[in-house]
Amino acid sequence: MNNFSSEQSRMLKDISIIDFTLVELNEYLDTHPYDKQAMEYFNHYARIKNQMAKDFSARYFPLTADMSTDTREWNWVLSPMPWESSFGEGGCK
Amino acid sequence: MQDYNFDEHFERYPIAMAYVPWQHLSQIYENLEEAFHIGTIFPELDKPFTGRRVVS
Amino acid sequence: MWNYEKRLQFPVNIKEPNAKLAQVIISQYGGPDGEMGASMRYLSQRYATPYREVAGLLTDIGTEELAHLEMVAAIVHQLTRNLSMEEIEKSGFAPYYTDHTIGIWPQAAGGIPFNACEFQSKGDVITDLFEDMAAEQKARTTYDNILRLIKEPDVCEPIKFLRQREVVHFQRFGEANREDCRIQVIVYLLSHICIIKAFRQRFDYGPNHRIHLLQGANPYRQNAGIRHTPDAAPIRCRAGAEKGRSCRKAVADFPAPFLKTLSERAFYAI
Questions:
Q1: Is C14 inside a domain boundary?
Q2: Which partners does chain B have (≥3 C-beta pairs < 8 Å)?
Q3: Contact between C169 and A13 using a beta-carbon 8 Å cutoff
Q4: 3-class DSSP state of C258
Q5: Hey, of A20, A29, A31, which one would you mutate to test binding to chain C, going by the most C CBs within 10 A of its CB?
Q6: Residue C115 belongs to a domain with what CATH number?
Q7: Is C191 found in the same domain as C133?
Q8: What is the pLDDT of residue C192?
Q9: Is residue C254 part of a domain?
């Protein structure tokens, strides 16, 4: 049962939004490698995303395997898979 | 926004080649959540499906 | 190498299973213009490009297409869960179900399995980039067709997102294909050698980028006799040496006389 609290959902959504911004800026910079303004934007959002991902992983489940700080159970594998319906949505499905 | 005045030297471009105009970083959507749902953070690349053909 | 982040790039939450839609959407998984073809195409093409900007772009977009592949699989998975046998038969899903139950298997809507014939990696950077631009348009058209067929908002939201990504990728590949994507690099390097400050202003690659100065730039570099000679020793230019990059001799690509002189000076000066 995927039981995401509303705070958890909100945090995951925010991480997705910031990461998407990074992907867009990343691809823009690949063809405009000397665009300083874009690089400033990128660095700014990258810092935010890394912090948010670490916070999420500490509080809920690791977003990447290397963010795991588990000592009792290996949540990387026990937490819901992204393709399960209602992944990321608050409440039970 | 992209200036749509075609470059006056466009006719002198070499033939047998294809060119896509450069995008210049002019604006980013302020509301990133809205941009996320649209699928791009750049307003000038936002070309939604209208049921027939793309809106410019 | 690749890392995995345990979330979808864009959320997929489909409440109503519908096997008929699943058959349409599976085409974007393993079909000829689907995400598997796209990611394999870009990730395969990157080895043969002589330009890091292009290789980097192919890597990044190829990786994003893997994320899209995952999204399409999630859509199909959620559309085919909890189906009754009647629904499976009525929707025409029975043939796929026979072979794969409700597993995800890369095939086109018509049943052709995914295979490498669905993409090309020609080993020629210009050709490959045109192939990629065409692939993005084909994918965009497929999503247009899906949006014409499907009206359920749960399904349309991620599909609209994926369609918009194709439009953006087309723009990126188009930019990478521009001869002056590399010219920008060379011009930047030249301007850093401080040959002429005015030259730098003239070649500002902001909104006043003057493409006509590069008239005659020939992307068919086989005519220039320079491209794809991995044995040819790259010529170190001063700025390139500082940045630890070598600049391939691209002088013959820019017949504009003053540029040739300047770039020759830049490239041959050690």
A1: no
A2: A, C
A3: no
A4: helix
A5: A31
A6: 1.20.1260.10
A7: no
A8: 55
A9: yes
- Residues of A (5-64) whose Cβ lies below 8 Å from B: 13, 16-18, 20-21, 24-25, 28, 32, 35, 37-38, 41
Tokens for B25, please give them.
């970083």
Give the least confident one: A77-86, B47-56, C123-132, C169-178: B47-56
Residue among A24, A35, A38 whose CB faces B40 most closely? A24
Same domain as C240, residue C149: no
Interface B-C, measured as beta-carbon pairs within 8 A, has a size of: 74
Q: Tell me, yes or no, whether C91 and C150 share the same domain.
A: yes
Residue C181's pLDDT band, with cuts at 50, 70 and 90, is low
pLDDT at A32: 92
Tokens of C116: 């490498």
Query: Is residue A76 less than 8 Å (CB to CB) from chain C?
Result: yes
Contacts of A24 in chain B (CB under 8 A): 40-42
Spatial CB neighbours of C242, under 8 Å, sequence gap ≥ 6:
none
Interacting residues of C1 by C-beta distance below 8 A, sequence separation 6+: none
Which of C7, C142, C171 to mutate to test binding with chain B, by most B CBs within 10 Å of its CB?
Answer: C171
Sequence-distant (≥ 6) Cβ neighbours of residue A93 within 8 angstroms: A1, A2, A85, A86
Question: In the predicted model, is pLDDT for residue C92 greater than 50?
Answer: yes
Residue C5 lies in a domain: no
In a domain, C197, yes or no: yes
Instruction: Report the C-alpha gap between C161 and C89 in whole angstroms.
Output: 31
Is a pLDDT exceeding 90 seen at residue C159?
Answer: yes
Segment A21-27 shows an average pLDDT of 96
Question: What range does the domain containing C226 cover?
Answer: 179-268
Q: How many domains does chain B have?
A: 1
At residue B52, the pLDDT reads 63
Would you say residue C222 has pLDDT above 60? no
Residues of B in contact with C164 (CB under 8 A): 38-40, 45-48
- Count: domains in chain C: 2
Q: How confident is the model at residue C233 (pLDDT cuts 50, 70, 90)?
A: very low
Are the beta carbons of B20 and C174 closer than 8 angstroms?
A: yes
Provide the token pair at C69.
Answer: 């592949």
Does C13 have pLDDT greater than 80? Answer: yes
Structure tokens at B22: 């450069």
Structure token pair of residue C51: 């330009």
Chain A: touching chains (3 or more CB pairs < 8 Å): B, C
| Min Cα–Cα distance to chain C from B43, Å | 11
